[in-house]
Amino acid sequence: MTTTQNHNLEFSPIRGFLLPIHNHELKKFLPMSFMLCFVLFVYTILRDAKDTLIVTAPGAGPETIPFLKGGIVVPISIALVFLYTKLSNIYSRDTIFKFIVIVLVGYFALFSFVLFPNQNFFHPSPETITNLQLQFPNIKYIFPIWGYWSYTLFYLTAELWSAFMVTLMFWQFANEITRTQEAKRFYTLFGFIAAVAVFIAGFTSFYFSYYSAVDVTDTKAWSRTLQYLASAGIFSGVMIIYLYHWITKNVLTDPVYYDKAESVVKHKEEKPKLSFMESLSYLIHSKYLGFIAILVLSYGVTFGLCELLLKSKLAQQYPNPNEFNAFMGVLSMSTSIAGVVLILFVKNVIARFGWYVGAISTPIILLLTGAPFFFFYFNLELLTPLATLLGLTPLAVFILISMIQNVLTKAFKYSLFDATKEMAYIPLDQELKVKGKAAVDVIGGRLGKGSSGFIVAALLVITAGDITSLAPYIIGCIVFLVAIWMISIKGLNRLYSNIVKD
């Protein structure tokens, strides 16, 4: 009997609910938890800052984001994932892990301490960008991507941190070193730890954004905020590398904590690497997988479009970058709190009411909270009585409404949408389960990330307008996609129920 089995005792009810981790497992669980905290901390402050930079930059605004996502982030991310798979065959995981952390955090520091404070030297003048926009109005939002090239690289850095450090490096590492019996307990707590990390990062962004704005000009205040955030990012990067090294040296060398044959990934078939066309073919020939892909795509595109509408109003309410970033910090804090509360309240919804109710909840919430969001987007003046009562402007009240829509949709996504999506794979045979999930990840993940950008960028090029003028078309796309989403859930539920019954 192994040491782990000797310690495999029942927990008390309170310990089982709060911390179902054996004392001897803390040596493994705690460093993994802190590592996840630091990874998500950097992810959150980068995510909030990247939007602030682009939305508040002169001549850029939220209209630039679709071009960034569709034209820069998606193709470069795909190319770098391909490069990563090649380098994985040449260099060790340790080398690649440390290299990615150093490069991404290094650019965060370089940007904050060198490029941004001296942007007048490194960037063309705002007048140059404006003149080009006037000459070519249909593609005017492409020029800020070139003009503010250091901002573009910062935006890309934030997206790559999400794609590589969160998805690839941490979770692959965790899956490899975590035994199946440990994963059932560790991974549940990781969800709460992730929420704590996002809350701390949101508070950090909020605090530094206000603290830096004392007695200095807007530009200097925002520069100082970035330097504070970069300092926190550098510290986090050092801790990530240290914890990774410590786990490798002290946990993976001890058979009590690590047995390669018992790791999570060894209990799963190796995930195949499918090309985009292979994935598309796989989904076309499987109605069941096609429905799952539509679910993932629908959420990604609709939520991306909703966020663009929100940011167009945020740009009006908070033209000052410190104020904008402070709001993004509050939004991150609110999302983490709502996510934890909702997980506690709805954890038995699927067991009590079934898969269909759990799956349909997210699009219904998006529509219910989206209805006032869409309506008041065009009718801000109707919020005047409420705004007067609260001592706010109609736009500020609208921001609160849109914040509720954003937070609740994300909270339902994390608590119910993700769970029902993963449940849908369970009744499939092994080949469909493994290859199908890979295909959905390629189509839903990569295409879904850029599709909202492609849609809005195309509309902006055709009309030479802005987000506000395109809002009716964007909202029409959202409603249409939610309808497709709900129809697909109904179709998938029928197939899912038949398979489960059989």
Task: Report what the structure shows.
80% of the residues lie in helices and 0% in strands. It has 20 helices and no strands. It has helices at 3-6, 13-18, 26-56, 64-88, 93-115, 119-122, 126-135, 143-147, 149-177, 180-211, 218-250, 276-284, 287-317, 321-346, 349-353, 355-378, 384-390, 394-423, 430-463, 467-501. It is globular. The two termini are 38 Å apart.
The proportion of residues forming helix, as a percent range, comes to over 70%
Sheet bearing the most strands, described? Answer: none
Low-confidence stretches: 1-8, 265-269
End-to-end separation: 38 Å
The global form is globular
As for the number of domains, it is 2
Structural class assignment: mainly alpha
How many β-strands, per DSSP? 0
CATH 2nd-level architecture of the largest domain: Up-down Bundle
* SSE pattern, N- to C-terminal: HHHHHHHHHHHHHHHHHHHH
Count of separate DSSP helical elements: 20
Residue share in β-strands: under 5%
CATH topology label of the largest domain: Growth Hormone, Chain: A
Instruction: Please state the CA-atom Rg, rounded to the nearest Å.
Output: 23 Å
Average the pLDDT over all residues and give the rounded result: 86
What is the level 1 CATH name of the largest domain?
Answer: Mainly Alpha
What is the oligomeric state here?
single chain
Write the layout of secondary structure elements.
Blueprint: H1 3-6, H2 13-18, H3 26-56, H4 64-88, H5 93-115, H6 119-122, H7 126-135, H8 143-147, H9 149-177, H10 180-211, H11 218-250, H12 276-284, H13 287-317, H14 321-346, H15 349-353, H16 355-378, H17 384-390, H18 394-423, H19 430-463, H20 467-501
Helix pairs in contact: 3-9, 3-10, 3-11, 3-14, 4-9, 4-19, 5-9, 5-11, 10-11, 10-14, 12-19, 13-16, 13-18, 13-19, 13-20, 14-18, 16-18, 16-20
